[in-house]
Amino acid sequence: MRIARVARLAPLPAAAALALLISGCNGTSSTPSSSMSMNIGYTAIGAAYSDLYVCQDRGVFKKNGLHVKLTLLNSSSQLAAALVSNSVQVGAGAARTTAQGIMKGLDLKYVALPISHYYLEMWGKPSISSVDDLKGQKIGLSSPGSLGDASLDALLEQKGWSGSDVKKTFLKSTPAEVTALENGAVSAIVTQPPTGTQTRSKGFKKIMDFTKFPAAANAYTVKGDYLAKNKKAVAAFVKSEAECLSILHRDKSAAIASIIKHSGNSDRSLAEYSYDFFEPLWAKTPSVAPQLIDDAFTQAVATSGGKKPADPAKYVDNSFVDSLVKSGYIAGLYK
């Protein structure tokens, strides 16, 4: 197993993360001066972030004047704290989690959305023949508030089940989920390809995927004060994002090479499986749908309490994507 070298933030205890949120709300955290350098945080190893991988590998960030370091967070539950502490300046993760931060007083903006559905799979024991067989079973997830946790909640709601109908087992990371499934500690796991997909070689089976559930699953998020001081950098990031999405759609070989390099698994067949899974999900125009952000706030209130903002759409800034559409830049990428 080979993983491309990226920075990784150590997991933060819940109390430390809360302290960061509180300090951010009180305005005590510093915001970097205008800069074309940025750390971009993403929240799991896998092919979902192939847009970032390709941007880095193909020099697209550099071409657009950015100096980027990719930073692997432990899960979406760390994202708000990482943004508040300025460990990352742009973060990708489940909007349900960052919506919780906004309800605590954080000023965050959603500036791009490359995938508008949950993009995870559930792999499990061969004895599980349908979703209904999951009742009473242990399901491995990375952490509370993670994308897997949100995806499973969507399934429970759709089935009309309560949280007690399955046994959520939090294992801190997606590689730990794979280990837990293989050693029998859990009956199923929720991960993105190719992390859980690799267990098929050991006899485990795909139970379902979550792509039918709309969600702002990996919304690119920035702090409001960072955006105000660094509009040129954010514009360059969104422009890079649009170009790299076009590379994913138009150049399968480049996408697969980046998936192999960064996803933690060198099996080409798994990379091809992952590409085929994600290609229909990747947007061409990465606008943030306000309704999905509204839904994220609704979900955040349901899971963690708090008061939903009167106008969730005010946390969406599609101006950078809109400018690329109006200029014909995005359309030109596909000619």
UniProtKB/TrEMBL annotation:
<feature type="domain" description="SsuA/THI5-like">
    <location>
        <begin position="51"/>
        <end position="239"/>
    </location>
</feature>
<dbReference type="GO" id="GO:0042597">
    <property type="term" value="C:periplasmic space"/>
</dbReference>
<dbReference type="InterPro" id="IPR015168">
    <property type="entry name" value="SsuA/THI5"/>
</dbReference>
<keyword id="KW-0732">Signal</keyword>
<protein>
    <submittedName>
        <fullName>NitT/TauT family transport system substrate-binding protein</fullName>
    </submittedName>
</protein>
<comment type="similarity">
    <text>Belongs to the bacterial solute-binding protein SsuA/TauA family.</text>
</comment>
<dbReference type="Pfam" id="PF09084">
    <property type="entry name" value="NMT1"/>
</dbReference>
<feature type="signal peptide">
    <location>
        <begin position="1"/>
        <end position="19"/>
    </location>
</feature>
